[in-house]
Amino acid sequence: MRPFDPRLLRYAGAARGYLACTVGLGLATTALIVAQAGLLATLLAGAIRGTSWPAVAGSLVALAAVLAARAAASYGGEVTALRTAATVKSQLRRRLTEKALDLGPSWLSGQRSGELATLSTKGLDALDPYFSRYLPQLVLASLVPIAVLVRVGLADWLSALVIALTLPLIPVFAVLIGLHTRAQTKRQWQLLARLGGHFLDVVEGLPTLKVFGRATVQADVIKEVTDQHRRATMGTLKVAFLSAMVLELAATLATALVAVEVGLRLLAGHLDYRTALLVLILTPEAYLPLRNVGAQFHASMEGATAAQQALDVLDTPAQQGHRAVGPLGSADLRTEEICLHGVTLRYPDRDKPALSDLSLAIRPGERIAVTGPSGAGKSSLLALLLRLAEPTAGTIEVGGTSLARIDVAQWRSQVAWVPQHPHLFAATVAANIALGKPDTDRGAIERAAALAGADVFIRNLADGYDTLLGERGLQLSAGQRQRIALARAFFVDAPLLLLDEPTAHLDPFSAHELQDSLAALLAGRTVVQVTHDPAAAAAADRVLTLRAGRLVQQHAPVPARAGTAEPATASASVRSGRTMPRAAAAVP
């Protein structure tokens, strides 16, 4: 692992200023160390020779000033480091969230949400010791030994030679220990991520586990993973303590060698007191930063490992498809037609494409039902229209303009989506309806809920629209959650509505009530509804059948003949991927 990942400079702008500040403080601290040693050697040599106090008063004042400046530099550096770490963590978390949204559900489905949550919280919090202790010591370890060698070399070349020969021992030992520590820390982090991810999954699924009597088993699994993490943490700490002892021993022996040869030459009269004192004072300073950086390396490894994983996620290439370069335009889905031309969608982890050579025209105000077996590509079609995925081949045009040239935010502001399992956040009912718009007028929220048939049961909740829902809204029934999702769609008032089997998991009574609410919602909108419900399909203008990612058939519902109770349907095979006009499909 690199001591400093340059990608931090790219993704966290605060790291640039901090790095420059750290280098500057390191240079200042190095100069202060050399000045302090010189002044202290002068004062001690003067005391040995019996120099009067008035003669050394100036040196005493200068030494006090140097000590104060060194303390101020150390304090200022740590305060700056902690503030920078907080800013860097905030920037990385924000970029990590944006990247996860940009990569979309196809990437997120292959990740464990708990591990990502652990990475962006506990993992990045461990960057504090990395910035406040490790990086400053790394800079000092690069500057101080060189400055000490130069200063000692000017005073006594033989002592400088001994220091130069013994200095590499500490980095060599540190590297050897670090190789072992890296593996230990990586395993510790993996176990922590696994523990966090598994614990989150268990908490979310606890009601289901209790129903099937599996809660105790999962508690045992959590206990086992916790014990593994504890053992890994203790192993890492053991290595850290042993490495500190090895580095201290190496530095102590090297300092002793210098002290012995300086003492022998001082006794022989080959060195004066001031030079000998200067060498003895500066020698420990040459080894101290190297020892400290080795000790702080272990404390910062968890944060550095988490940062590296976060940066790896940020470097993950998004599915490019046919992204346009240049200024982005806008679209009006109330009047413009959506056309798919030979669209193919292939996910990176799958051998077969989810959609293959799909051509389709969706006219404004048209109601389209999409049917087909599981895995046929129905949800992938919605993902393309939601712009959660980009075509691997082919193009999507809106009013003759490539969809890739339309601003994503402007596009999604015109799209409402009601999934099978809508996600409700741990917020109030009103906040869940007015998603992302906290300052919305309460009247608009209540009108949207009334249109969705949700107003009555919401008012019967403990605090009405101000009732706090738990995570995923599990205190509500499935039908109530779907109605809140419909209220969101009413609230957005979007011209394009995408429905992904909203009644698939409801009882017949709830499904019938929800369909009545949907009938009001669909009026005057362009609708693409994935469904297996014959009633929903019969109410559509066109029914598309997908199989293995291909559009194999279109159905145009026919008006019921006189004396018949049910409408008939005529079907037409898809030819050349073009949409069949409804007039051509109708049976007179």
Which key terms come to mind for this protein?
588 residues; alpha/beta; ABC transporter transmembrane region fold; Rossmann fold; 3 domains; seven-stranded mixed beta sheet; four-stranded antiparallel beta sheet; 11 strands; 61% helix; disordered C terminus
Shape: elongated
Helix content estimate: 55-70%
- The total of helices stands at 20
Average pLDDT reading: 78
Global structural class = alpha/beta
Measure the end-to-end span: 74 Å
Q: Return the CATH topology of the largest domain.
A: ABC transporter transmembrane region fold
CATH level-1 class of the largest domain? Mainly Alpha
Per CATH, the architecture of the largest domain is Up-down Bundle
> How many beta-strand elements?
11
Radius of gyration: 35 Å
Tell me what portion of residues adopts beta-strand conformation: 5-15%
Q: How is the main sheet built? A: 7 strands, mixed
Give the full name of the CATH homologous superfamily of the largest domain: ABC transporter type 1, transmembrane domain
Can you tell me the residue ranges where pLDDT is under 50 for at least 5 consecutive residues? 320-325, 558-588
Strand order of the largest sheet: 6-7-8-3-9-10-11
How many domains, in number, for the residues? 3
